[in-house]
Amino acid sequence: MPPALFAPIARISHGSWDSNNAIMIIRNKLDKPFGPFGTSTGFFLLAGGIIATWYSIGGLILAFAGAFIAFTTTSTFIDVDRKRIKFSNDFFGFLYSGKWIDIRPGMKLGTKKAHRGFRAYTRANQPTDMHFRDFRIYLFDSNKMQLGTVKKFSTLESAKNELIKLGSDLNLEVIS
């Protein structure tokens, strides 16, 4: 059976058992692809679209676009039993898309410091910057090419502890 583009909602939960398949799948929320400014804009579009729907059916388009921008996130799913990882774009927060990557011999896990910066301009043309610094666990192939983000942390110590735990759970080599 070919892999589904959108995973069923009932099968994936945050670190709990699925009684149908007895599979442990861990979900790690990562980022909002539109950033904090885009997310707040999405909420305003959603609210404006709902209000505009009272006057015109065209407001549904605005509400639909606002919901997409406000609730879309990225996450990683870790299937410990089947030894695979999936980087996912979560459209509207509940439609999961992505491809499973099977863990093969030679793959590695490692930590890196990450920085995401966002800039918006006020009406007076003044920049407003937001910076997020964190530590992330990445999956690497046998050539040390980065395949994707597995999990993010606010401190290096907690990232290192989880790195050791994930490495033993998935039977992966840990690199610094």
Return the average pLDDT rounded to an integer: 84
Radius of gyration: 19 Å
DSSP, total strands:
11
Largest sheet: 7 strands, antiparallel
Number of helices: 3
Give a brief rundown of this model.
The chain has 176 residues and is an alpha+beta fold.
Describe this structure in words.
With 176 residues, the protein is an alpha+beta fold. The protein has a domain of 73 residues. The strands form 2 sheets. Strands 1, 2, 3, 4, 5, 6 and 7 form a 7-stranded antiparallel sheet that branches. Strands 10-9-8-11 form a 4-stranded mixed sheet. A hairpin with a 4-residue loop joins strand 2 and strand 3. Helix 1 packs antiparallel against helix 2. The longest helix has 19 residues. It is elongated and about 60 Å long. It starts with 5 loop residues before the first strand and ends with a strand. The N terminus is likely disordered.
Describe the protein's topology.
Blueprint: E1 6-7, E2 16-18, E3 23-29, H1 35-53, H2 59-71, E4 73-79, E5 84-91, E6 95-97, E7 100-102, E8 108-121, E9 127-140, E10 146-153, H3 156-170, E11 173-175
Parallel strand pairs: 8-11
Antiparallel strand pairs: 1-6, 2-3, 3-4, 4-5, 5-6, 5-7, 8-9, 9-10
Helix pairs in contact: 1-2
List keywords for this structure.
seven-stranded antiparallel sheet, elongated, 176 residues, single chain, disordered N terminus, alpha+beta
